[in-house]
Write a structure and sequence with these properties.
The structure holds two protein chains of two kinds.
Chain A lengths: L1 E8 L5 H7 L3 H11 L2 E6 L3 E8 L3 H12 L4 H7 L1 E4 H12 L11 H12 L4 H20 L9 H13 L6 E5 L3 H12 L3 E7 L2 H11 L2 E4 L12 E4 L10 H8 L7 E5 L16 E5 H39 L3 H22 L5 H31 L3 H12 L9
Parallel strand pairs in A: 5-6, 5-8, 6-7, 8-9, 9-10
Antiparallel strand pairs in A: 1-3, 1-4, 2-3
Helix pairs in contact in A: 3-4, 5-7, 5-12, 6-7, 7-12, 8-9, 12-14, 13-14, 14-15
Chain B lengths: L2 H4 L1 H20 L3 H27 L8 H20 L7 H18 L13 H35 L13 H28 L8 H21 L5 H23 L1
Helix pairs in contact in B: 2-3, 2-5, 3-4, 4-5, 4-6, 5-6, 6-7, 6-9, 7-8, 8-9
The chains are: A alpha/beta, B mainly alpha.
């Protein structure tokens, strides 16, 4: 069985071409079924890849299928496709699952996307083994390295900073100023870590109410937020205001009733919404967009250094898959050998059957079974080892010849 | 020199290694931190064996001298640190604790506090008193370590240090809460220790050491009261360190000078 992969990704193919072959999960399912045999389609915003396991003509089939998706730009797409086989294709999938081939190294979303693609695909025994091992490799990388621990975007860095101040965000109250996309993305990151969005304040109250409803919060007009500061733990501000929405005096007044509780303020707006003098107040930590982007840049560089460790883990897993793949060459021979010796044993037991009591027969059966298992154990291991070292076919031929496997009437 | 006495050297070596490795952890988390944690564990085991050797050989309480007390004190501090220090998030507390532990153990060794000798016969009440007081002060040392880590992390957050998410440190809220809890636990031990000491107290025994101990007790009790009134975070950390300055500077002078 040969493994073939054809695909496009953000590395070499521009979005204008990638979007022609970007398909949703249902389309991935249909496509895998239509291609026939063992097939899995992985399609995300950064890549579309088709994995096939078959004996021959797989590459042509994969290229033709993807080119058809691109319609009138099929020829252009076919030229842009990368094509990998066997060990190279497996290693590629393992790197993808571990997030090592992603735009941001170590991002965790891809592992879930690989799992979903696998579940929606049409895997047989070969692709089943490949994808399960890829998922295992992805999980190992996340568990054994710190590649996925640091945030890779401004909203996730904002949420991670909140955890640096409060640790457990459960019960932390968030005050959201502005109802735009940035506010919402940051709010969702905070909510995913346990925080509660208490208030959404916006200049246009209707927009604020809409977001507040989605986040389970109260909506307020922007000029009423100063009164809410005393109860808040995190303030996220991303309005389009040209003036400061909160002054240092507003925050200083709120601090008097906070009994020393710290306050984290995240100013994601340009021009800035929050008076920079707030950072000088005791217990207040103010971060603007530049500060957060600097933190993200630093953590991404940390991810790159962890990537070297992750690559080693992925290579280990790929080697295990290669050994398994190679052992497939000798598996039919091992199965035939075992079937042959079982047949001989059964025949001899049948001959002696009349001379033995029931108890004696069971005893002899047990002993002969153990003898055969022990005799065949080492040859089986050696054949699998030889297969991993590329001598498997030679060993298999020798065993088939010595034991007459596959002959019409082996000598018994 | 008995074999047990030699155990101070692996303990010193391991504590020293841990102190250096924690500095490495600061530059980049990973292997250095794991090496440091193993240094702490192995050093503490070696020191435990040394203390057992001392206890077995001595007829009474073997840590009655200033150097002996220091030896036991270091063991208690490192033991208390081990409760948290093995988890990655609390590793950097070791950056405060382990250099101190290594230096103090070296001092204890130089002062003869790690020697295995026949000790003076002392009553069990006095031994329990000394052990409880040392455990209490060990807890206060750890609380001071947390306060120092709090101030360091707060400074990084205030200054928008680019690497603030790269080096794993407990959250400010956690450090503040843990330091306060450790002070409460230490005060309980000190209260018990003072109680045992009072049992063998005779009129005319009151001296400067007792006065300073009660002063330290009062400072930490005030810290807890003020915290309850809203003095948390930076101010609590500073008061914690001020209290520890009394422990570190005044207590040795009054007790052992």
């Amino acid at each position: 069985m040969r493994l073939t992969l054809a695909g496009v990704s953000h590395h070499r193919t521009p979005i204008e071409l990638r979007e022609r072959v970007a398909i949703d999960l249902d389309a991935c399912r249909d496509l895998a079924a239509r291609v026939g045999g063992e097939a899995v389609v992985l399609s995300t915003c950064n890549r579309t890849e088709l994995y096939l396991a078959r004996e021959e003509h797989a590459e042509e089939e994969a290229v033709r299928t993807l080119a058809e998706l691109a319609d009138d730009r099929g020829a252009e797409l076919a030229a842009a496709l990368y094509r990998l086989r066997d060990e190279g294709a497996a290693l590629h999938l393992f790197r993808v699952a571990a997030g090592l081939d992603s735009l941001v190294p170590g991002e965790g979303e891809i592992l879930g996307q690989v799992r979903t693609a696998f579940e929606a695909g049409s895997p047989g025994p070969f692709l089943d083994r490949l994808f399960r091992q890829a998922l295992h490799a992805g999980r190992r990388v996340r568990l054994e390295t710190a590649i996925g621990e640091s945030p890779a975007s401004v909203p996730s860095a904002a949420a991670a900073l909140a955890q640096q101040v409060f640790e457990d965000l459960r019960g932390s109250r968030v005050l959201l100023l502005g109802a735009g996309k940035m506010s919402e993305a940051t709010a969702r990151n905070l909510v995913s870590r346990g925080a509660e969005i208490a208030v959404v304040a916006n200049r246009t109250l209707e927009h604020g109410e809409e977001l507040a409803r989605r986040l389970g919060a109260r909506a307020l007009p922007l000029d009423a937020v100063a009164h809410e500061l005393a109860e808040a733990d995190v303030v996220v501000s991303a309005t389009s205001s040209s003036d400061h929405v909160l002054s240092s005096d507003d925050v200083a007044a709120a601090l008097r009733t906070r009994r020393g509780r710290p306050l984290l303020l995240l100013d994601l707006a340009v021009p800035r919404d929050l008076d920079p003098a707030i950072n000088a107040l005791e217990g207040c930590f103010l971060y603007d967009v530049d500060d957060l982007e600097a933190v993200v840049a630093e953590t991404i560089s940390g991810r790159r250094s962890e990537a070297a460790r992750a690559e080693r883990l992925v290579e280990e897993e790929a080697a295990r898959f290669r050994d398994w793949h190679a052992s497939l060459d000798v598996v039919p021979t091992i199965a035939s050998l075992r079937a042959l010796v079982e047949e001989i044993r059964d025949g001899e037991l049948a001959k002696a059957g009349g001379r033995l009591s029931e108890r004696e027969r069971r005893h002899v059966e047990s002993i002969t079974s153990q003898i055969l298992a022990k005799l065949l154990h080492l040859p089986t291991i050696r054949m699998k080892e030889a297969a991993a070292a590329a001598d498997g076919v030679v060993y298999a031929d020798v065993v088939r010849h010595l034991f007459g496997l596959g002959e019409e009437e082996p000598r018994r | 020199m008995l074999v047990a006495e030699l155990l101070v050297f692996p303990a010193l070596l391991a504590y020293g290694e841990a102190a250096f490795a924690y500095a490495g952890e600061l530059r980049g988390p990973g292997l250095a931190g794991r090496l440091a944690t193993w240094g702490v564990r192995l050093g503490w085991l070696a020191q435990t064996a040394l203390l057992v050797g001392q206890a077995v050989s001595a007829e009474g309480f073997p840590w009655g001298t200033w150097a002996g007390s220091l030896n036991l004190f270091v063991w208690l501090v490192v033991g208390a640190y081990l409760i948290w220090g093995c988890t990655p998030r609390y590793r950097l507390l070791g950056l405060v604790v382990m250099p101190l532990a290594a230096v103090l153990l070296a001092l204890a060794w130089a002062g003869g506090g790690t020697a295995v000798v026949e000790g003076e016969r002392s009553g069990p009440v006095l031994a329990v008193h000394a052990a409880l007081m040392l455990a209490g002060f060990a807890g206060l040392t750890l609380a001071a370590g947390m306060a120092a880590l709090y101030l360091w992390q707060e400074r990084r957050l205030k200054r928008h240090d680019r690497g603030v998410l790269k080096v794993r440190v407990p959250a400010l809220g956690t450090l503040d809460r843990l330091a306060a809890r450790t002070v409460v636990g230490s005060l309980v031990l000190l209260t018990l220790g003072i109680g045992f000491g009072a049992a063998s107290f005779e009129r005319g025994d009151f001296d400067a050491a007792m006065a300073v101990t009660i002063g330290i007790y009062a400072v930490y009790a005030a810290l807890l009261v003020l915290r309850h009134e809203g003095w948390s975070g930076r101010r609590a950390a500073l008061l914690n360190l001020a209290g520890f300055a009394l422990v570190a500077v005044v207590l040795p002078i009054t007790h052992f000078a």
